[in-house]
């Protein structure tokens, strides 16, 4: 009986140490991250796990719409893809939710259509082609001049 206890005691101690050093801190970190993701509101600046920096424009149950770059491109990401909040918005959370709901009610959803490129006017095409042929002619003349020397 005494020999069995001495054999199991190091194993039990090892499991307890593993729990307090690895498992417990990981669960604590996970709770903090989930609280941060639940607390995200419109106006917060975030960084995603992919490294994309953007500003929250709209929040949904499981996803967020963020605005990115100078072109103000908007796209939807999942809440779990948020790595950290860089700058929190100045508004209180309750007021922000009310404003988002008002915006959603007044906003009409338009189907996104790709933009079409405009065709160049025929006169512009001719001048572009003429300029290109002039440049080719100039390079040929300079090549002939170097050969004659």
UniProtKB/TrEMBL annotation:
Gene Ontology process terms (BP): protein transport
In the bilayer, the protein is annotated as:
Single-pass membrane protein
One GO CC term on file: plasma membrane
Q: Which InterPro entries match?
A: Preprotein_translocase_YajC
Where are the stretches annotated Disordered?
A: 89-149
The subcellular location is: Cell membrane
Its domain of life reads: Bacteria
Primary subcellular site in the record, as a coarse category: membrane
- Which UniProt key words apply to this protein? Cell membrane, Membrane, Protein transport, Translocation, Transmembrane, Transmembrane helix, Transport
Q: What Pfam families does this protein map onto?
A: YajC
* Compositionally biased intervals (Basic and acidic residues): 89-98
Which parts pass through the membrane? 6-23
Q: Spell out the Acidic residues composition-biased ranges.
A: 126-149
What family, per the record? Belongs to the YajC family.
Quote the protein name from its UniProt record.
Preprotein translocase subunit YajC
At the highest ranks, the source species' classification is:
Bacteria, Bacillati, Bacillota, Clostridia, Peptostreptococcales
The gene name on file is yajC
């Amino acid at each position: 009986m005494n020999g069995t206890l001495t054999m199991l005691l190091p194993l039990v101690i090892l499991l307890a140490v593993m729990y307090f050093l690895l498992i417990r801190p990981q669960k604590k970190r996970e709770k903090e991250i989930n609280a941060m993701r639940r607390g995200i509101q419109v106006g917060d600046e975030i960084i995603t796990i992919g490294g994309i920096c953007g500003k929250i424009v709209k929040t949904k149950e499981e996803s967020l719409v963020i605005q990115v770059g100078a072109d103000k491109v908007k796209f939807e990401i999942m809440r779990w893809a948020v790595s950290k909040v860089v700058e929190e918005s100045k508004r209180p959370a309750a007021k922000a939710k009310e404003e988002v709901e008002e915006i959603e009610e007044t906003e009409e959803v338009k189907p996104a259509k790709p933009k079409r490129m405009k065709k160049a006017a025929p006169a512009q095409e001719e001048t572009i082609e003429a300029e290109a042929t002039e440049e080719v002619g100039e390079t040929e003349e300079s090549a002939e001049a170097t050969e004659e020397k």
